Amino acid sequence: MFDKNTMVGRSRQQKWLDRCSEFLPILDWGLHYQRAHFPGDLTAGIVVATVLVPQAMAYALLAGLPPQIGLYASILPPVVYAFLGTSRLISVAPVALDSLMVGAAIAPLAAENTPKYLGLALLLALTIGAIDILMGVLRLGFLVNFLSQAVISGFISAAAIAIGFSQVKHLLGLKITQTESFLQLLTYLAQGIKETNLVAVSLGVTSILFLVYFPKWSGKELNKRGFQELTIVPLTKSAPLLLVIGSSLLVWFFHLDRIAGVKVVGNIPKGLPSLSFPALDGDTVTALLPAALAISFVGFMEAYSVGKFLASKRRQKIDADREFIALGAANISAALTGGYPVAGGVSRSSVNFSANANTPLASIITALIVALTVMFLTPLFYFLPQASLAAIIVMAVSSLFDFGTLKRLWVYNKADAFAWISAFLAVLITSVEKGILLGAAVSIILHLWRTSKPHIAVVGRVGNTEHFRNVLRYEVKTCPHVLAVRVDASLYFVNAKYLEDYLIKAVSDRPEVKYLLLVCSAVNSIDGSALETLKSLIADLKTRGIEFYMSEVKGPVMDGLLKVGFIEELGKERIFLTTDRAMQALECV
Amino acid sequence: MFDKNTMVGRSRQQKWLDRCSEFLPILDWGLHYQRAHFPGDLTAGIVVATVLVPQAMAYALLAGLPPQIGLYASILPPVVYAFLGTSRLISVAPVALDSLMVGAAIAPLAAENTPKYLGLALLLALTIGAIDILMGVLRLGFLVNFLSQAVISGFISAAAIAIGFSQVKHLLGLKITQTESFLQLLTYLAQGIKETNLVAVSLGVTSILFLVYFPKWSGKELNKRGFQELTIVPLTKSAPLLLVIGSSLLVWFFHLDRIAGVKVVGNIPKGLPSLSFPALDGDTVTALLPAALAISFVGFMEAYSVGKFLASKRRQKIDADREFIALGAANISAALTGGYPVAGGVSRSSVNFSANANTPLASIITALIVALTVMFLTPLFYFLPQASLAAIIVMAVSSLFDFGTLKRLWVYNKADAFAWISAFLAVLITSVEKGILLGAAVSIILHLWRTSKPHIAVVGRVGNTEHFRNVLRYEVKTCPHVLAVRVDASLYFVNAKYLEDYLIKAVSDRPEVKYLLLVCSAVNSIDGSALETLKSLIADLKTRGIEFYMSEVKGPVMDGLLKVGFIEELGKERIFLTTDRAMQALECV
Hints:
- The structure is a homodimer.
- By secondary structure, chain A is mainly alpha-helical.
- The first copy, chain A, has 3 domains: 1-32, no CATH class; 33-419, no CATH class; 456-585, Transcription Regulator spoIIAA, CATH 3.30.750.
- Helices cover 65% and strands 6% of the residues of chain A.
- In chain A, the strands form 2 sheets. Chain A has a 6-stranded mixed beta sheet with strand order 4-3-5-6-7-8. A two-stranded antiparallel ribbon of chain A has the order 1-2.
- The relative contact order of chain A is 0.14.
- Chains A and B meet through helix 14, helix 19, helix 20, helix 21 and helix 22 of A and helix 14, helix 19, helix 20, helix 21 and helix 22 of B.
């Protein structure tokens, strides 16, 4: 008795804990933390920090913000995500794509390097956070599926180009402010090209070459000398950090900032960010809303897809709606601590994974290192040339351009390729968020158009069997007084009229037809409009002296037709379980 | 030889004529005109004219235009349509729905009764004509199918209410200018209700009662006295004309316009309209474009649906794209002759049909009568009270309100009912064209949402047969190491991820599964995004040690998969013609 009670008590406690840990995943991994996981988490935390610190500063510049804002956004948000996120491996902090979109969204509303610009970045993070949480709570995560893979690929490819070109100004050492669109940027670049700073260009090009070849070279060398994979990964991944240190030393030693005019990061305030709260202003929120929606979707997609990919490698699961909530909370925390919009980065999360992170503790360690950096090390970044940061960005996005997908789609499905190209061009010609919206609209319209003319086949009996097949593909037996037609699609408002036109034409072309049999084996549903069309078709056929029959109506479809009285109206005897029985009843054997 | 040549010559001439008459249907019916058709055409022409003359004036008032504009739009447009239209029976002239939309579109841009207002009506007709022709030439008629029957019904019902209420001002004898939205109209009506003109109200109510009861009463009486159907129809349809004559005489005799302040039509300029050409102004065209698109669609839908319905009764055919072109030409002719946008009216076309029209000659006769009316009879309309015209409109639209469809949809399919309600409310709360757009968006999103979670069934073998059925509905045999799943939908970007999640969860819940078999009997197509998802699913399964197989892949789907190299990648031996063979190969018998 006593034992049993304890059992019940325990199981209740367990249930309660399970429920809590469903909402707070940290209870799950935190309370059952295994010591064996610590070395991996520690290494990954350190390695990701070496990648993140330069990246965060670079991405902030990409968004038109001072570099420290990127660092601020890398402290609290990853910790908040560690408490709430269902992925154990993604690294939440600034990402390139979102940073580009943030810059494009804010640039028309305020001048760069003004308090208003900073305030708008906070407000945008807050708005994105609110949208994310709403999406998660209302379980609207499925809306992300409305963006086809073709659109996402075209959109990301164009964004990669836009990001790459946005760094050309830093690589050339030009002074160009944040631009709203790719075309505007190109104009500015074309105008400024004469003022290229040759020292900055050399630094930039050297930086890119270093980032490309150092990991390959060091990996090969370390491998040759018999180092283990666990040692090699952190070292090869440290290329950005080494670049930051090396190029800073170079600028400091040769006074390149003063004598050659090389732009450096300059003074970064020391210390943790103070609490911030964005000024809420209805009109501004409305103005930011389209961009916020687009950034929320793009950020979620990036985080969710990399999270799902890494989870599957560890046989873990992640939950779309909870991910939305966790990312939303992370963005709100960014808004409250002087940051700007964050998401889960693909390359950084992969580094986290391959550096053997086991739990979100790795992200907390990363955040701690960033916090320490902000508190003590910012003066070291004074001489960091912007050209090196630009090189880090260019390298980070160079792998995003995805022409291979376009080629595959072109071969497989021209409509998808067209959606890819629409999203791609729209992003480059108009803006990132308009591009993604237009791409989504194009892929939806093309999908509807594709399904608007379903495959319809006149069928006949194969030999003496009970099988019925397309008369155009098989040698089959038909009767002149019966027309049996199979439609290979569900019936809904977009394709119903096409079916009606097809059937009317089919019976007009065959004046001897007395019975029309609709074979519904591929009809998974019939919507309200299609039902009305079906009724008017039946009435139309009646005036032509043709009777309407159906066969192989699926269970759920039949249930709906019964409920609305359609079956009664048509007559139960006109619906047959199989096409064979229908044909026998219509004396076509 | 000679004979043969002549044959060839004739057949060539015939071919050429066929081709011409395809573009100019008048060559078809005009060159083969049968004398026997004339009496019907003449009667119908006269009967429709008696309906059209009052209607045209009333609808012009509904659009905020002087009554003669409605008459002008009833002269050349129906003649142009008679040359180009593929329907032999529809009556092209002003219609209620379009007139309401024209008024709502122009009201924000110009004050009523100004030359600018008239000019905008011309420009709108020209724009609509251009859109129609473009739609026809580019064969975009299928776009009309994107408006589901539910949306159209909800939209028309709300428009009927809006039109009905817009006439309340005339029925009450109030002075209210053209309004942009239903809500604005209601506000104005509420403010003006105290100034109701009791004489006008009595006239209006009497007019409605006359229009309701005269046709019934006269039909019954004539029937009793043994008159034939052919005589009865013209007489019962003449109610509007009799009302116009009777109420004009009443106002004239009792001087109701002067002593009781009853608003009358007043002076209508005598004579045919002069040629007009709307002032082309890019900004104005842009401002009118959304409304023009909506009016073009609505006008086409109305004309096409009634045309199709009447054509089927006479076993004739109509062509959507050519209809667009014919309606476009009619609208352009309206713009050139001082008219305003026209379409094919449902009720008027039905009158044309039941008065025994045989060819478009009936419409030409109607147009001639309208022209004669404009030339000689306009002074007779001076005393025609606006309340009587309002009564004609109210009667014309009263049958459009379609609550029955909502009730049916509610029972059959809640999503369709929701689309109905969205369109209905949006039309009443915002505007007619926004309502139709929102309704279309709602029905498309609901459709995508509905198809985003397709029916998926785990299947097993029925007894010792070759049939496989849902394990939840049938008693079937399965094996623990094989999971056979049938998906009842085509795979595309919106539902691909759902399928992936479903399958990953399914194999996670069944750790003993070694082979996953996807039964594709209901998969009519796989788009590019779904293909990518499928590939990542297969890779994911591989890391879990599960092999992927497919069965019953349809021909066209297989062709696409072969072309893109998917089959080669997967391995030909992993695709089976039937589920039975697959199960045998996987040792699950």
